[in-house]
Amino acid sequence: PVWDNNIVSGLFDGSDGLDAVLSRLEDAFVPRPLPALQSEEVADQDWERSWLERYQPIHYGHNLWVCPTWHEQTDDSATTVFLDPGLAFGSGTHETTGMCLAWLAEHPPTGYTLIDYGCGSGILAIAALKLGASHATGIDIDPQALQASHANAERNGVAESLDLYLPEDQPEALKADLIFANILANTLVELKDHLLAMRNESGTLILSGILADQADSISAAYSAGNRVTRYQDGDWVTMSIEKTPS
Asked: pTM of the prediction?
């Protein structure tokens, strides 16, 4: 319902041969035909070790690391968020999340309040709290994301400073100094008034999840009365939205 084209990858037991796998897939798609596909044989391996090795600590700015829980802390003098990849989106590996983390690392939110709209794993709220934010609120449409955010906040020792809500349950007068919205570009436009209304008078709204060819339309939607600053990493753009001084 969101994208015109989807690519799904699956790993299947091939002991009965490719024909058996295709037969099961065809049954699953009935009455629709099986979509176009490609297949290859993958040699068996120690999948758990392979999965663990894939996720290594990632450095943002000069003092922020995101580190899987099975890995030792890389820099004792830096701020480290311990987080494992899971069902909820946001482990720091994607450019959209990475640019938000880099922004936080370069703009320490000491004493600030923060809203993470579309919090996923809670990584941005947790990073902000560990970098000195006084309080954070995470909002997501997926109850599993709220569960993941709470578990990750507990693992990082900041659960008492993080409130979590479904959108329909968030307080009406909720405002913050920093608001992060790392979601789909069309949704950023639809929620413009809502997101801006949650920003304190001198606050900053950070938008992410924007493809480069969507940036102009997002900037135009938010430009009235605001100063828009763009940051780009490859095909992805993040924007800071600050109120234009009168």
From this structure: 0.81
